[in-house]
Specification:
By secondary structure, this protein is an alpha+beta fold. It has four domains: 126 residues, 3-Layer(aba) Sandwich (Rossmann fold), CATH 3.40.50; 146 residues, Rossmann fold (3-Layer(aba) Sandwich); 142 residues, Hedgehog/Intein (Hint) domain (Endonuclease - Pi-scei, Chain A, domain 1, Beta Complex); 222 residues, Roll (Endonuclease I-creI), CATH 3.10.28. Helices cover 38% and strands 26% of the residues. The strands form nine sheets. Strands 7, 10, 11, 12 and 28 form a five-stranded antiparallel β-sheet that branches. Helix 7 runs parallel beside helix 9 and helix 8 packs antiparallel against helix 9. It is elongated and about 105 Å long. The two termini are 61 Å apart.
Length: 736
């Protein structure tokens, strides 16, 4: 049922995510509004397992925790879930309302969701809708909520200071527990004021060792796991009892202030720029900023807490050389293409079992279709329909679950080039060769065009002697009517080499003319630059890094040799076909680099090898190929994709949701934190995981002890305790 009309059919009974001690402040907010609500079940081992049991495995740990919280409240009568987006922050939890609703509905719990946007107007309108309260009452409830929230955070900070110094171990936590129970029952501002004085007096009476020199550890990471002790296995209490003072910048009021005062975000970005120039979601940037802050303040250690969060097997990743490689085969250290159109090293690979929905997003055929978990961020342009035309509303990384048919996904336009003038053949022969001893193959426009012809029509010729197979020359096969292309190749060879060119009629193929150039060096050079066999031809990396205007000559030759041009009303297209998947991928990127957006289509014809068709489907882009032999009629433009300075945007044609069980994969990439999957740009899945290599780099540069703990439903407290004990020893030694 839609949240806009659920209140017209039955009275809402609200519940909401359990969030550690903050739950007390949320309860006070609903009480002040006069809303019927049932508090969520406190997070415990049973609720976590219950939530994890019905949640998709690959989803973020906080989502599973909240599902478990909801189930207890639903059994008690709650029918509407109040889903607060991350106010002022960037937690992925805000994207999960629809997913949580589907998970609960599929499990038989039919509930409504009220999902809040970060816009204050939207927050106010939704609260008024569910409560019917006046403006004054809503403001009063918000102020009361904030006072309780600040008091909770103040109490937690005082406890962080007192725990390592108290002489009677456990006294601070006992007083804190009693104080929070009392705070839950307070109903008025006057009671808050009196309580504040009273609890301050009680805490001041705790006997502490004021002269004790205690180590200090900063806690950083994702806000939910950092602030909810039931999720992080009470890490602050454990460290405090070991004589370590804990500090935590990450709290809810901190993010509310960031929402009100946006320059705080700008300050963070400026401070972390030497380590991270791009933006990431979650609380990745905050984590870097806080670690640098703790180092500056002379802390003795830093702990990162993060939830463990992707693509299915055989998703192709664009690697160096503009080749495609299945994601499960990618290794640490390999370079992959990023959303910035450059190649960066993979620093970490991830693989995990997953059971749940996969979004199959079709951007133009099988090869441009990605199958991805719903939370994985894609570089997308959201659109609105205005005057029968889709207009771009925003362009950023957003979760796959947020995109819809008609939105766009980005293909980066790579722009990196290297100035390489020629290919050098260095083989030395024992005897002076009888053929022209070609040592350099210049990367001139006409010789590059010749390579394009050879990719489409060429073969290597061999002779067999003394039990060895020698390359003896190269051959081209043209249709006899392609006289212009035959003459072009002959002219290129004559202008650049002294080797003899022979032309043959083929009795077995009467319509074919064969050109043969007998030169072993040339055969070896062409083999090195382009490979051989129609389904294995691959361009040398030199050719993939040349300037686009030179690469255009390769494209001209290929499309002339294996191309089919149509120019009639209703269809203007230029198609080229190859049976080499590697070559198809490389030619695709050569076209993209020349600002020509092709379609790439896999063709499976019975009793034939799979082939790959590159199709340029607009007159304006065919003209960009710059082939004077192709005459294109000017027609009215009908272009579905969009072109930006650094990207082509391809429209989403269709989205399917499929049930999936198996392994899913993800990569961490240095600097840009993104990669290209099935030709479209995607972000690393978990922002906190994304910045972990940066935090480890800072740790190595400064020597400060660092521990990163990934938390999910499969992590045991015993395992956390073991790692924590070892870390405490390191911190104490570092402090000394």
């Amino acid at each position: 049922m839609d949240s806009n009309n659920c209140f017209k059919t039955n009275k809402p009974v609200i519940t909401f995510p359990y969030w550690g001690n903050y739950t007390i402040a949320f309860e006070a907010f609903f009480q002040k509004l006069g809303i019927d609500f049932i508090p969520p079940e406190a997070t415990n081992e049973n609720s976590i397992q219950e939530g994890a049991k019905i949640s998709p495995e690959m989803y973020c740990f906080p989502l599973k925790v909240n599902i478990g919280n909801y189930l207890g409240a639903i059994r008690k009568g709650a029918n509407t879930i109040f889903m607060v987006t991350s106010v002022g922050g960037s937690c992925r939890l805000r994207y999960y309302g629809d997913v949580q609703k589907k998970v609960l509905n599929d499990s038989g719990s039919k509930v409504n969701f009220v999902i809040f946007d970060q816009n204050p107007i939207d927050v106010y309108s939704k609260i008024k809708e569910i409560s019917g309260a006046s403006f004054g009452r809503i403001i009063n409830a918000a102020i009361f909520f904030y006072k309780k929230l600040k008091l909770i955070e103040d109490l937690e900070r005082k406890a962080q200071y007192l725990r390592p110094r108290e002489k009677k171990k456990g006294e601070t936590d006992m007083i804190l527990k009693t104080a929070l129970e009392r705070l839950r029952k307070i109903q008025t501002y006057k009671e808050i004021s009196n309580f504040k004085k009273e609890i301050s007096e009680k805490l001041s009476k705790i006997e502490i060792d004021k002269n004790k020199d205690v180590p200090k550890v900063g806690i950083i990471g994702e806000i939910f796991t950092v602030t909810d002790e039931t999720v992080n296995f009470r890490i602050e209490k454990k460290l405090g009892r070991e004589g370590i003072e804990v500090h935590r910048e990450m709290d809810l009021s901190y993010h509310i202030k960031k929402k009100i005062f946006p320059w705080k975000d700008w300050q963070i970005q400026r401070k972390i720029k030497p380590y991270l120039k791009s933006t990431v979601g979650g609380h990745g940037r905050d984590a870097i900023y806080e670690m640098l802050y703790y180092i500056k303040k002379g802390f003795d250690g830093v702990i990162q807490l993060l939830p463990f969060g992707c693509f299915v097997e055989n998703t192709n990743i664009t690697i160096e050389g503009y080749l495609q490689k299945p994601i499960q085969e990618i290794k640490v250290g390999e370079k992959v293409l990023t959303h910035k159109g450059r190649f960066k090293k993979v620093t970490q690979t991830f693989c995990r079992n997953y059971q749940g929905p996969i979004l199959k997003i079709d951007c133009g055929g099988k090869l441009l279709t990605i199958s991805v978990t719903p939370e994985h961020p894609l570089l997308s342009a959201k659109t609105i329909l205005r005057n029968r035309r889709r207009e771009i509303q925003s362009f950023n990384f957003i979760p796959a679950s947020e995109v819809k048919k008609g939105d766009f996904i980005a293909i980066p336009i790579p722009k990196e080039t290297k100035k390489i003038d020629y290919f050098e053949w260095r083989k030395k022969y024992k005897r002076t060769p009888k053929w022209e001893d070609i040592k350099r193959f210049p990367y001139s426009p006409e010789l590059l065009r010749m390579l394009g012809y050879w990719l489409a029509e060429g073969t290597i010729r061999y002779d067999s002697g003394t039990n060895k197979k020698y390359k003896r020359g190269i051959a081209f096969h043209f249709a006899k009517q392609e006289k212009d292309y035959i003459d072009d190749v002959v002219g290129i060879i004559e202008n650049n080499f002294k080797s003899k060119i022979s032309q043959y009629d083929r009795p077995d193929r009467p319509n074919i003319m064969e050109l043969y150039i007998g030169n072993r060096n040339l055969a070896e050079i062409v083999f090195s630059l382009c490979g051989e066999h129609c389904d294995k031809k691959t361009l040398h990396n030199d050719l993939m890094t040349l300037a686009p205007e030179l690469q255009r000559e390769i494209l001209k030759g290929f499309f002339r040799g294996d191309g089919s041009f149509r120019d009639k009303y209703g269809e203007t297209s230029y198609r080229g076909v190859t049976t080499s998947q590697n070559l198809a991928s490389q030619l695709f990127w050569l076209l993209i680099r020349n600002r020509i957006k092709p379609s790439l289509i896999e063709q499976c014809i019975k009793n034939r090898k799979p082939s790959y068709m590159l199709k340029i489907a607009t007159a304006s882009e065919i003209k960009r190929l710059g082939d004077e032999k192709i005459k294109v009629t000017e027609r009215k433009k009908f272009i579905k994709h969009r072109e930006l300075e650094n990207y082509f945007l391809v429209p989403i044609r269709k989205i399917e949701i499929i049930n999936f069980k198996g392994k899913v994969y993800n990569l961490e990439v240095e600097d840009d934190h993104s990669y290209v999957a099935n030709f479209v740009a995607v972000h690393n899945c978990m922002p906190e995981t994304t910045v972990r290599p940066i935090l480890e780099k800072i740790h190595k540069e400064t020597g400060i002890p660092f521990l990163s703990l990934s938390l999910d439903e499969q992590v045991s407290e015993a395992g956390i305790n073991t790692r924590l004990e070892a870390f405490v020893d390191v911190v104490k030694n570092y402090h000394c």
